[in-house]
Amino acid sequence: MIVIEKQFMKNIKKLAVLFILPLIFFSSAFAENSTNSINEQPQIDQKSKIQDPNILAEEYFNIGKSLYNLGKYEEAIKNFDLAVKYKYDCAKCYNSKGMVLNDLGKHQEAINNFNSALKYQPIYPSAYNNTGYTLKVLGKYQEAIKNFDIALKYNPHFAVAYNNKGSVLNDLGKYPEAIEQYDLALQYDPKYPEAYYNKGISLMSLWQNQEAIENYNLAIKYKPDYVNSYNNKSVSLINLGKYQEAIDTCNIVIKYQPNCVEAYYNKAMSLNILKKHKEAIENCDLAIKYSPDYIGSYLEKGIALRKLGKYQEAIKSYDLAINRQADYAESYLEKAITLVNLNKHKEAKENFNLALKYKPNLMTEYKEIIKALRKLGNDLMAGEFEEKLKIMQDNL
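That's the Tetratricopeptide repeat family protein sequence above. Prediction below.
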């Protein structure tokens, strides 16, 4: 069984650090080995005298799976359709076609094909898992969980389904329940890097950063070039106040993926806290080079410029962030703090109010973050947040 990775990314405001959402997977019915070379165009020999429809269906299915692995989605679909033409009840053909349709963003069509697979093979855990995956993409979390549960009913050792169910529970904010599912996945597959990675994310959400790091390290043990695990490990290290270790971890990410925006951003954050503002700016500029629409890079660059006393340049950086995303509260917050430094209190108040307009619970969130950081012993970063909160309170 080949597992196809599906990754979703989203900003979660935990110390304004990017974190990567849990990975959720397709479960493929594809055979593990293929006779086709990766560079060869698979096809049936036109001189072949194969007449048995079952054999023809299998041939077209194998061609379809090879084309899918080559990223030739439309051609893969054509071959799965031909397979079904010769064997109308080919459940794995419908399942595989559904996977391709999901990659093309045609989620309802994908579900229709998974349903066809289940019509002809009602006990088909992979098809239930894939249906659950698609429902998760569509935001139908409870329905997704039901499908993962059915997959697990028919295959209680199905590590991928436990992982995927955990991913949905994480999205619902049910972090302890998510961790239970990841532990079940790891019970049946102890060398499952994505389950360790996902467990780390849920632990981070509970502010259990040391435990999160332990899980990221296990993910890396089984997948040494696992960029996302290094990235999230750096976030946990920042939360714990281990800034140089965070920088070292970001450098490993950059070694494996030189255009990784999140690594440059997390590195810049650590450098700013260590008062290495010029180096922070260099890393922000690299992040902007690789992703001009990544808002956090402009904010972190603005913070570095403000701390260097370059207030007008800082404001320009915040304005670039605002131009790209007008409803991002932290852009107005950072701009307002810089305006206070320039004694432009009226403009500062306007920007503080805009920050609260777009995030009404901003002050409450900061108080919670400060409390969590103090509990972790990260007084340096807690002090940074306290300073921002006080400036805001004094200028409203």
